[in-house]
User: What shape does this take?
Amino acid sequence: MIITYHNGGFIKITSGDITIAMNPISKSSKLKEVKFGADLALVSVDHADCNGTASVTRSGKELFVIDGPGEYEVAGVFAKGVATATEYGGESKINTMYSLHVEDIHIVNLGAIKDEKLTGKMLDGIDDIDVLLVPIGGEGTVEPAVANKLANSLEAKIVIPTFYNNDSLKTYLKEASAEGVEEVEKLVLKKKDLDGKSGEVVVLKS
Assistant: This one.
């Protein structure tokens, strides 16, 4: 599995022949659009920064879009969406938190979440998290300190910050006692690589 970051909440996951786009950026966003062909797209919030499914659609390649709560299975990928809250873009909206199982690796993407605490109902069936994608930028999502508390409470093996800028990243790394972490272009991950990890912060370059 290869995980890369493309600004905002946009994460690309490649697993064998399957390409997953999480919160792809629309051409109408102020953020830079990134185009490629995906098999599965997941949209957390209906905003131009996150709903650019056209940007990851290619002729001859069928794209399956998940844009809300529910349980899904697509090409061997199991996904569960749970409704939470956000104020991303300055409006109160529904944010969908996604739980994915890919290559026997459990990935949870909090999306553009604003909730400072997750209820038992939200977390039903979501445990033993291998990779957690957590927003740290504030401005409609949680602030860095709250993001760190959420990450600690979920006890993921690896934590990847999203929706960040230089200031929020610096603050988050200080909160997480991970100030020496250097940015990397991509995360190449196999299940065995997770052995012994607990709360390791990985910063992906945008």
The longest helix spans residues 144-154. The first strand starts at residue 2 and ends at 5. Residues 73 and 79 are 6 Å apart (CA to CA). The chain has a mean pLDDT of 95.
